[in-house]
């Protein structure tokens, strides 16, 4: 409720669906001292008076606008000029004049026909993107605009105060107010509203004209009903809109016809792959844009959007579990499958947001990709020279891997491209990959401040192979350079200061590309080709880590994790847990898609002991330390971690954030510059609880959130973890699997 009314007197010219809905909001919230209206018919005015919507009604708009400080034109757009001309001499100097018309260019043209270029400062056109099939004063609803958009199209003559006051009015109606240029409005609406309405009218008209129309409508399925719903809208209004926005609508129709012709041809030619590609692209684009527009604060450190509540203990933590696929391998399976010759089948694909961003990028570059469905993806490779220029910037979401690896691939293409990301990715450094790519002849610019995204990459005239000494250990930079090297002239070689993850090298070999590794020097020759293959994405050892630690610290647990990736650059967690005395067996070792995988059995461990973690294991377990800290807290004796300063610059400062959480749960620990000292609370053979219940801030770091969830197995009070929505980025099935394992975990949105 607003105490001081926003307006003294509001005059509606036209009081149908839209006008009367806004009048209802103004009335309910007491936003004006007086509301009056003018319509053509007395009947409408009488009805509005009777409903108590207005205090006075006039058939002549001149009488309505006297002394009004807000005039709302809520009538058919074609009547605008005539009404404005009539009321002009009677409008107060500082009155706000707005409208609700569905097209804006012609409203502005009408105003100019009346006022010339000297438009009143209070003139601010608007358009609520909300409606209903029924019109008239009785159809109005007070909540019509709630959670809908209202577009204001201020002109250069519009005063800020008028825009501000109108925004307040629409916000009071719970609408989301945005400002837009008039032409942009008409162009956008032509595509998103006017064309769909025309298509709905067109389809119904097409079917109604058939001889068997009765049957057609009688047996119409849900799809037809959904699609044709908007053809029930007011024909007068749409007649007006189609004429009012003629140029933009004609353009939209042309685009539609061209696209439809493509679909027609694909069906006629029975081009299954291309048809699948386009359908898949459309479906994915819809999800992708919905997600982008939902504007989830994924990695933003501001708003808590989700919470886990974990009650102590678990029942039945036994049996076989498959944790989701490895993220690094999932990314690469799409990238390499896309540029391979032939069709690549991927199983175990991680359907997390980062890998989906990579998948969408390749669809945007014309690659036909089916899925993902239950972790299965089929990629119809286009070969080394088959990628097409994307129609707009490639959106990488939160995924640094996608952006850095794709930099290498895009730098070698014959088209320009731009890559953008979310707020968090937009702060990450890209020069570390851009710089060596430039040495290869790439034209690549990080256009953000201080070498951050967006990345702008120009069509390449021919890359040349180089040797590069990596200044820092980075699998992403190494991979980006190797990928650029596929198209480069001659040999591309890299030496790394210490070994980093070698998923790129392994998978390139699985696709039949020769990559040499000699000590810490990796090299390949440009100009070869990749041959499609089957990629089984291993279960992600980083996700498996939570179940390994969980089973170790939980009485009677006996868990087998299937097909876990045991790439030697990633197995630090296994080695460290073994050194702590964990009952852990690795068996059934095999190779899949170039990667070593195995099943891992972990049983409740009676005598878990604290250790000084060997520094040579640190890089091999870098992502698993949050989970290992939970194991350390449950072990007997002290655990000391050193040489792990990198943990402080991950998605959060994982040393500090884990220390804060552990201390909140009553665990004694001391964070150090490059590690932590944790005083384990466990005793051999004793399964009593070690953690107090607490409320923990995960700082939107998925691994922190999952680690503290595991602590629930040995806590004697409820653990609340804030900011858990990021768990979906790496482990979308985490809560489902932990619930299956008998954890008492509740998700609060
Ligand atoms: P509506 O329910 O049919 O109401 C139109 C109102 O305008 C009626 O009160 C009518 O008077 C009055 N009117 C018509 N011609 C007039 C004239 N020449 N002079 C004075 N008053 C006149 O229409 P609506 O759905 O509210 O639409 C109004 C505006 O909103 C249109 O410009 C439309 O483009 C826009 N809009 C509509 C929707 C939607 O879904 N309906 C959505 C967004 C925007 P009587 O009552 O006497 O007939």
UniProtKB/TrEMBL annotation:
Residues of the active site: 623
Keyword Electron transport: no
Cellular component, GO, one term: cytoplasm
Domain Prephenate/arogenate dehydrogenase: 8-297
GO molecular function: 3-phosphoshikimate 1-carboxyvinyltransferase activity; NAD+ binding; prephenate dehydrogenase (NAD+) activity; prephenate dehydrogenase (NADP+) activity
Compartments where found: Cytoplasm
Listed GO biological process terms: chorismate biosynthetic process; tyrosine biosynthetic process
Pfam families noted in UniProt: EPSP_synthase (PF00275), PDH_C (PF20463), PDH_N (PF02153)
Domain of life of the native organism: Bacteria
Record's catalysed reaction(s): 3-phosphoshikimate + phosphoenolpyruvate = 5-O-(1-carboxyvinyl)-3-phosphoshikimate + phosphate; prephenate + NAD(+) = 3-(4-hydroxyphenyl)pyruvate + CO2 + NADH
InterPro entries: 6-PGluconate_DH-like_C_sf, Enolpyruvate_Tfrase_dom, Enolpyruvate_Tfrase_sf, EPSP_synthase, EPSP_synthase_CS, NAD(P)-bd_dom_sf, PDH_C, PDH_N
Binding site for phosphoenolpyruvate: 327, 400, 428, 476, 654, 703
The enzyme's E.C. designation: 2.5.1.19
Top-rank EC class of the record's enzyme: transferase
Binding site for 3-phosphoshikimate: 327-328, 332, 474, 476, 623, 650
Keywords carried by this UniProt record: Amino-acid biosynthesis, Aromatic amino acid biosynthesis, Cytoplasm, NAD, Oxidoreductase, Transferase, Tyrosine biosynthesis
Family listed: Belongs to the EPSP synthase family. Belongs to the prephenate/arogenate dehydrogenase family.
Quaternary state and interactors: Monomer.
Function: Catalyzes the transfer of the enolpyruvyl moiety of phosphoenolpyruvate (PEP) to the 5-hydroxyl of shikimate-3-phosphate (S3P) to produce enolpyruvyl shikimate-3-phosphate and inorganic phosphate.
Protein name according to UniProt: 3-phosphoshikimate 1-carboxyvinyltransferase
């Amino acid at each position: 409720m607003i105490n001081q009314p926003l307006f003294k007197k509001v005059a509606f010219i036209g009081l149908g669906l839209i006008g009367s809905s806004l009048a209802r909001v103004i009335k309910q919230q007491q936003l004006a001292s007086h509301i009056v209206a003018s319509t053509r018919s007395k009947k409408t005015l009488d009805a509005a008076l009777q409903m108590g919507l207005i205090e006075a009604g006039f058939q002549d708009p001149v009488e309505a606008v006297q002394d009004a400080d807000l005039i709302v034109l809520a009538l058919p757009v074609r009547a605008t000029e005539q009404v404005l001309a009539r009321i002009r001499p009677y409008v107060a100097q500082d009155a706000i004049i707005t409208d609700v018309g569905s097209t804006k260019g012609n409203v502005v043209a009408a105003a100019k026909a009346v006022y010339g270029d000297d438009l009143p400062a209070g003139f601010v056109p608007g358009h609520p993107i909300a409606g209903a099939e029924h019109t008239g004063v009785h159809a109005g609803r007070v909540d019509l605009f709630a959670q809908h958009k209202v577009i204001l199209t201020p002109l250069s003559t519009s005063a800020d105060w008028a825009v501000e006051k109108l925004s307040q009015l629409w916000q009071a109606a719970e609408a989301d107010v945005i400002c837009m240029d008039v032409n942009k409005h008409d162009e956008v609406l032509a595509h998103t509203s006017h064309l769909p309405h025309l298509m709905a009218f067109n389809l119904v008209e097409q079917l109604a004209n058939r001889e068997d129309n009765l049957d057609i409508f009688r047996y119409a399925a849900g799809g037809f009903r959904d699609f044709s719903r908007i053809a029930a809208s007011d024909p007068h209004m749409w007649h007006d809109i189609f004429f009012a926005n003629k140029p933009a609508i004609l353009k939209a129709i042309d685009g539609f016809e061209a696209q439809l012709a493509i679909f027609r041809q694909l069906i006629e030619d029975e081009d299954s792959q291309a048809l699948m590609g386009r359908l898949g692209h459309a479906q994915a684009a819809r999800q992708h844009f919905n997600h982008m527009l939902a504007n989830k604060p994924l990695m933003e450190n501001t708003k808590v959007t989700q919470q886990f509540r974990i009650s102590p203990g678990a029942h039945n933590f036994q049996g076989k579990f498959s944790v989701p696929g490895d993220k690094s391998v999932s990314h690469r399976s799409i990238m390499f499958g896309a540029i391979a010759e032939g069709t690549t089948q991927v199983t175990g694909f991680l359907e997390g947001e980062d890998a989906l961003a990579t998948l969408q990028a390749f669809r945007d570059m014309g690659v036909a990709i089916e899925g993902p469905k239950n972790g299965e993806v089929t990629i119809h490779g286009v070969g080394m020279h088959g990628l097409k220029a994307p129609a707009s910037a490639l959106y990488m979401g939160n995924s640094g891997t996608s952006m850095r690896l794709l930099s290498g691939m895009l730098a070698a293409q014959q088209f320009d491209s731009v890559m953008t990301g979310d707020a968090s990715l937009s702060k990450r450094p890209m020069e570390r990959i851009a710089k060596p790519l430039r040495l290869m002849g790439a034209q690549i610019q990080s256009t953000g401040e201080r070498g951050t995204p967006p990345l702008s990459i120009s069509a390449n005239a021919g890359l040349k192979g180089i040797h590069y000494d990596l200044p820092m250990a980075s699998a992403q930079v190494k991979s980006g350079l190797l990928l650029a090297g596929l198209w480069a002239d001659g040999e591309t070689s890299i030496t790394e200061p210490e070994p980093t993850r070698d998923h790129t090298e392994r998978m390139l070999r699985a696709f039949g590309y020769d990559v040499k590794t000699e000590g810490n020097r990796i090299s390949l020759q440009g100009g070869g080709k990749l041959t499609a293959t089957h990629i089984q994405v291993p279960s992600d050892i980083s996700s498996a880590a939570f179940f390994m630690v969980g089973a170790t610290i939980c009485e009677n647990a006996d868990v087998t994790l299937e097909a876990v990736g045991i790439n030697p650059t990633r197995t630090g967690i296994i080695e460290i847990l073994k050194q702590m005395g964990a009952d852990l067996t690795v068996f059934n070792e095999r190779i899949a898609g170039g990667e070593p995988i195995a099943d891992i059995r972990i049983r409740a461990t009676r005598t878990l002991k604290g250790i000084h973690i060997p520094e040579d294991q640190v890089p091999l377990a870098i992502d698993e330390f949050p989970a290992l800290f939970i194991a350390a807290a449950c072990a007997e004796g002290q655990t000391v971690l050193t040489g792990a300063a990198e943990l402080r610059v991950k998605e959060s400062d994982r040393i500090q954030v884990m220390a804060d959480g552990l201390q909140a749960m009553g665990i004694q620990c001391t964070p150090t510059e490059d590690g932590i000292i944790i005083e384990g609370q466990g005793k051999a053979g004793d399964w009593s609880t070690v953690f107090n219940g607490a409320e923990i801030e995960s700082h939107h770091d998925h691994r922190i959130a999952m680690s503290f969830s595991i602590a629930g197995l040995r806590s004697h009070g409820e653990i609340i973890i804030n900011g858990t929505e990021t768990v979906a980025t790496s482990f979308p099935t985490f809560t489902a699997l932990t619930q299956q394992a008998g954890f008492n975990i509740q998700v609060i949105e």
